[in-house]
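Service request form, structural biology core

Requester: graduate student, group of Dr. S.
Request type: structure prediction, single chain
Budget code: on file
Notes: please return the result as structure tokens.

Sequence provided:
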Amino acid sequence: TIDSATTVNLDLSGQNFILDSTTLVTNNGCIVLADSTSLSEQPGYPIVGNGYETTTRNLNQQLFGANIGGLGFYSLTDSIPGVLTIKRFHTAENLSTLGQSIKRRFVLSSTDTLAHNYTFGFLYDPTELNGNIPSNLIVINKSDTSGSWYGLGGTSFANLYKTEVSTDNLGEFTLIGTSLTISTVNDTSFCPLDSIITAFNAQGFFN
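Core staff response, request fulfilled:
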């Protein structure tokens, strides 16, 4: 267990830290990965806790599909301008009547503040679903500028435990799956109705 207010630096260049499947790692603090360090979690044994893992990397290079730092985030964009910081959390987001997200959230920030077109992928462990249905998962985003959650839609690959989406925002991302009807989806604490309908149409809920 990593206690709160404790930082663990994994700064051995080029090393892949493989977590033992017989030991559950609880991170209530912060794990910092160097720019060429990665984690390998075993299926069914992801890191848990109230803390986060983070890495800062210059990704202005070819990185198509690479699971960056083993944190479960990848880009289908050839490059991401600037220096990107990734933070991964293990707690769910409570979205009022829409329910709770999966128990994995990402915060992405870059030294490049211009808008760009990205295609991102988010991996998760089945133990993090938190009652959500994999085939119904969509990506939701809270950007630094809006401060509100918006449905982005996306494509869920349920058998591979991942969801991909296109966006021009960074900020906070998580996944939520729901079978809400059009009469119950208007949750103003989440986002405008037209945004959520667009997201759910992408998954075929209202077609």
